[in-house]
Design goal:
Length: 396
């Protein structure tokens, strides 16, 4: 009996020790991976098929001293990236087709941005999003953008401060809180809006601005979708009007006129809070948008004493009017497009479920004529390190 137990113990010990020698059965070595940093989706002008541009890191060039200018195609020079292109009928088939052009399998966990070309966005993006949501390697926090023209052109534009264009675009998006005139949209946010029965998806618009060597990338305006198709866009001012209402204004500048004299005053936004509430009175739906804002005097071009109580009160009223105008402009544009970018439909769905069942089938028409009350309360907290401006004393 003892010998049997010894044999069992020995076999168990051998089995346990052998498990530690198997190694990582599914490991993939770094030299075998094509690390994707950005992806652009366009509609091929020749065939009308999907055209995918995958931006891969050239790891051997990352530590070189070159700037990478002119090396977008990855054919030589000191470019630290390679823009690989392929066309196909479906997203997954097109990506799998990259194996015919690259010896390395595409690796997605480090992807920074997804850029849709305008033509593709106008025809619908839903069928191309499924891969990025379903695949185990992709991330839901990747930034979503719409190119003013072709996505491949954006990924081929060499930024001045980064070796990898996709990294430069990602960092550009991360800096947008400073002005709050750009809707920073991640994949999970876009898909959540897409899955809503009423809320319209939105994404920032990126374009190449300026001629030749002076050109630069610029994020300007917001693409507005109806279901999954691009139908219009908001200006920077209209975009911030939307962000005021949905509580996504972080910082920025409000320019107003100096009270009682020529010149302008720049008010820095320090804090902001937006709140949307709904009411149904006598079967008539309505929305109230409440906005609270606090700011500081950041700059003035006039010689007025803006810290005087009467001047501060006038500045406050002007700030409130400026915010109100931005929200109203965004509301009017969206009602004209019949695109509920504010998410009013979801608010009614959550708070007035019984009435919502009667409204949902006609929501587009209801939204375009919806009564919306906007209230703004602004405060000016500080004037910086000085009160009166640094100007020469006036002659008596």
């Amino acid at each position: 009996m003892k010998s049997v137990k010894k044999v069992v113990a020995l076999m168990t010990t051998i089995l346990i020790l052998s498990l530690g020698t198997t190694g990582c059965w599914n490991r993939r070595e770094l030299p075998s991976l094509g690390i994707v940093m950005g992806v652009g989706l366009d509609k091929s002008e020749d065939s009308g098929k999907l055209e995918v541009t995958a931006q891969l890191i050239k790891t051997s060039e990352l530590n070189s001293g070159g700037t990478g200018e002119g090396g977008g195609g990855g054919s030589g020079g000191s470019s630290a990236y390679w823009n690989l292109q392929n066309t196909g009928e479906s997203m997954f088939a097109t990506i799998r087709g990259f194996t015919h052009k690259s010896s390395r399998k595409l690796y997605w966990p480090h992807n920074q941005v997804i850029i849709f070309g305008r033509s593709l966005a106008e025809n619908g993006v839903q069928e191309y999003l499924d891969f990025f949501v379903r695949d185990q390697e992709t991330r839901l926090e990747v930034y979503m953008l719409v190119a003013q023209d072709k996505a491949s052109d954006i990924l081929d534009f060499q930024p001045k401060l980064e070796k990898i264009p996709a990294v430069g675009i990602s960092e550009l998006m991360e800096s947008q809180d400073a002005n709050s005139q750009t809707c920073v949209t991640q994949l999970n946010e876009f898909v959540t809006r897409l899955m809503s029965p009423t809320t319209a998806p939105i994404a920032p618009i990126i374009k190449i601005e300026g001629p030749g060597a002076k050109s630069e990338l610029s994020v300007e305006g917001t693409a507005v979708f109806k279901k999954d198709k691009l139908i219009g866009q908001l200006t920077k001012e209209e975009t911030r009007g939307l962000l005021w209402a949905i509580n996504k204004v972080k910082s920025g500048i409000i320019d107003v006129k100096c009270p009682d004299c020529a010149g302008t005053v720049s008010l820095e936004i320090i804090r902001s809070k937006g709140k949307i509430t709904s009411q149904i009175i006598d079967s008539k739906p309505s929305i109230t948008i409440e906005i609270e804002e606090e700011g500081n005097i950041a700059d003035q071009s006039c010689d007025a004493n803006l810290v005087a109580p009467d001047a501060t009160e006038k500045l406050t009223k002007q700030a409130e009017k400026a915010i109100l105008d931005e929200v109203e402009s965004a509301l009017k544009k969206s009602q004209k497009l019949k695109a509920d970018i504010f998410g009013f439909g979801d608010v009614f769905h959550q708070r007035h479920l019984k009435e919502w069942t009667q409204m949902k089938d006609d929501w587009d028409e209801i939204y375009s004529n919806l009564e919306v009350e906007i209230t703004v309360q602004a405060k000016i907290r500080r004037s910086g390190t000085i009160g009166r401006p640094a100007t020469p004393e006036k002659e008596q």
